[in-house]
C-alpha cells in the first residue's frame, strides 16, 4: 500500500474510482452494473449499512443475490442529507472495522439508489409497488412504531396515523407508504412483499404487522384483510455496535486512503437471526452466517435485555459522572460493579439460553464487546432516546422480577440514574445537552422529582399503569434520595453491598 501523502492523497470514493483505493482496502468483487434491486430499506442510517447491507454485500461477493440489491429510502426531512452524500459517491459505503488488534476497511456496494425524500412519499410508494421489490425492510428506531405505552398496541389516535388514515394516497409515515404500496400491488394483481423490521423490539415482526394491518383497517378493511392473509412480517434480531460517525471516523477513513463523506465504523461482531417467513422469496442469507429459525423469541430476549439493557445501565450513570465512552465505563470500577450485579441478579435470572450459548456466556461476550476501546461509542449516543429505550430494554426485566418476587433494587437504581441524567446537569456541574425527543418534558419532570420522586414514575407513557409495584416505587424513591444526598457513586456503593438475592 502506498502511504497517504501529498503525492498519494486519499482517493475519492466513487464507482469508477475503486481501483484507485489502496490495495489493503477490500472492494466489491462484483460488477455493480449487474445488480438489480429487490429490497427497499426505509431508515437508511449507519446501522443498516454496517449490518444488513454488509450481509447482502457478502452474498454478492460470493456471486449470489445479484437480484437483491438495495434501494435506500427515508420519510424524514433530515434523511435528505444522507441521501445527497451517498448519491455523490454512487451509494458506496466505507466500513471501518474497529478491532482491538487494529482497524481495517472495506467498501461495500449492494445499495444502488436512494429515493427522493418527499412529503407525500410518492417515489417511495411507486418503488415499493414495483414487482421487483420483494422485501421492504426498516430501521425506524424503537420509538417509531406508534405504540400505546400502557397497552403496547398500535396507537390509532396518533396525529400522524390519523393523517395517513384520512389521506391514504399521500401518507407522511413509513407505515402509510407501505399500506399505499400494498394497495397498489393488490390492484395490479401482485402479491405482497415481505415487510422486515430490523429494530430492537421484542416481536418486531408482530409489531410491524399490527402497525401495517391496523393502519390499513382504518381506511380500507378489505385491504387490511388481504395484507394480513397474504403478507409476511418475520421477527428478527439484529446485533452490531455501530457508533455515530464523528470527525474521528472521517479521519480514520482518510488515513486508510479513502475520501468518504459518510463512512461507518463498527465493532468486529455481527449477528442476525430471522424468522424464516418470506412471502415473496429471499436471498440465501444462511450462506453468510444469518440464523434462519422459527424461534427468534429467545434470541431477542437475550440480546435486548443483556446487551441493550446493559447499555442503558452504563450510559445513564456514565453521563452523570462525565465518563465519555462505553469502554471507559467498563474501566470504571464503580460503574462496572453496578453493571455486573444488576446483570447477574436482576436480568440473567429472567433470560434463557439459546442454541449454542448460555445467558452467562452471552454476558461475558457482551462485556468483552463493551470493553473494546477501539469502538469510541459515546455514552451520549447510547443514552439517546431513553424514553423509547428504557420501556423496551429495562422495564421488561423489572416486571419479570416483580412477578417472580426477586430483587429489583438495581433496576430501580437504573431508573433513578435515568431520572437524574434527565435533569441536564452532570455531577461536575457541566450541562447535558438535550438528548431525547421528549427532553423538555423529561427535564422538567426530573427537576421536579428531586422534591417528589413519584412524579417521575407518574409518567405513564413510559411506565404504564400496571406491573409497577409498590416495592419498585419505594426503592426508586429511596435511590433518588441517596443520589441527591451521596452522589451516584455513593448510591452504587450502597447497592453493591446489598445482600445477594435470588428468586
UniProtKB/TrEMBL annotation:
<protein>
    <submittedName>
        <fullName>Mannitol 2-dehydrogenase</fullName>
        <ecNumber>1.1.1.67</ecNumber>
    </submittedName>
</protein>
<dbReference type="InterPro" id="IPR013131">
    <property type="entry name" value="Mannitol_DH_N"/>
</dbReference>
<dbReference type="InterPro" id="IPR050988">
    <property type="entry name" value="Mannitol_DH/Oxidoreductase"/>
</dbReference>
<dbReference type="InterPro" id="IPR008927">
    <property type="entry name" value="6-PGluconate_DH-like_C_sf"/>
</dbReference>
<feature type="domain" description="Mannitol dehydrogenase N-terminal">
    <location>
        <begin position="38"/>
        <end position="286"/>
    </location>
</feature>
<dbReference type="Pfam" id="PF01232">
    <property type="entry name" value="Mannitol_dh"/>
</dbReference>
<dbReference type="GO" id="GO:0050086">
    <property type="term" value="F:mannitol 2-dehydrogenase activity"/>
</dbReference>
<dbReference type="InterPro" id="IPR000669">
    <property type="entry name" value="Mannitol_DH"/>
</dbReference>
<dbReference type="InterPro" id="IPR013328">
    <property type="entry name" value="6PGD_dom2"/>
</dbReference>
<dbReference type="InterPro" id="IPR036291">
    <property type="entry name" value="NAD(P)-bd_dom_sf"/>
</dbReference>
<keyword id="KW-0560">Oxidoreductase</keyword>
<feature type="domain" description="Mannitol dehydrogenase C-terminal">
    <location>
        <begin position="295"/>
        <end position="483"/>
    </location>
</feature>
<dbReference type="InterPro" id="IPR013118">
    <property type="entry name" value="Mannitol_DH_C"/>
</dbReference>
<dbReference type="Pfam" id="PF08125">
    <property type="entry name" value="Mannitol_dh_C"/>
</dbReference>
